[in-house]
Design goal:
alpha+beta, five-stranded antiparallel sheet, three-stranded antiparallel sheet, 9 helices, globular
Amino acid sequence: MSEHSLNFYHAAIKNACPQTIAMSLPEIQGVMAKVFLAEQPDASKIVCKFNPATIIKRNKHVSELMRECDIPMPVTTTHAYLDTYFESYRYIPDKTLYEYMRDGVSDEFITNAFKQAIDVQHQISQITPDEVATMPGRTFADVTEIQMSEKVRPILAMSYKLIATIMAQGGKMRLLHSDLQPKNILVTPNGNLSHVIDIESVVLCNDSFAMLRMLYNYPLNNTDDIMDYYEQTTGRTLNRRLIHAGLKILPMLYEPKKRLDNIFTTTHGR
């Protein structure tokens, strides 16, 4: 997916949503994808998220699975404009947990939001891997490679895939959300989780890896309480030794990754 001017992205959105009266950037921007908000005449908004074609198509399949299973995630529509693909879905006005945390909420509010996200994770894990057997970008490693190949040199993308494969594909593979973090959890003012977003993070990986990724972005110290809740909810045992070791290792992997991204990112990718 090539990088384009803002006018190009705006033209693509207007082509798909001709009633759009204005466009803006969301307050919280994603790392890998271009995201815009298209304002409609009825004061509603449509989220338009640009990604490689493979990601957009697999996301459509995943979003339909979520809808069929009553899992609170957006249902996407796929669009193509020249060499560019994007997905759209109705904007959900509830704030992210990240925004609540930034504005100041209690530890109990944060813990309860994460526990509700685990409830959603359990729902997702009940979908059998057979449902995504023919889908491209099935695993965490696959999605990592596809997204990275659009941003960095191929040799670096392959390196990221190798790391992701080693970390995410040991043990029993399940369909799980691999990035349950505050920016992907939407919450109502009374503390109820309304939706989980970031569909490309619903992938085949193992329980312990998904928990590791969750706890990497968890802001409190009661991590054993969170893991206890996960095991009680799912009936599955986590590899806590691996998770605790991973929480020490991940910063050492992610920080060099950020620096390498800045060095090796292709000029059309930024």
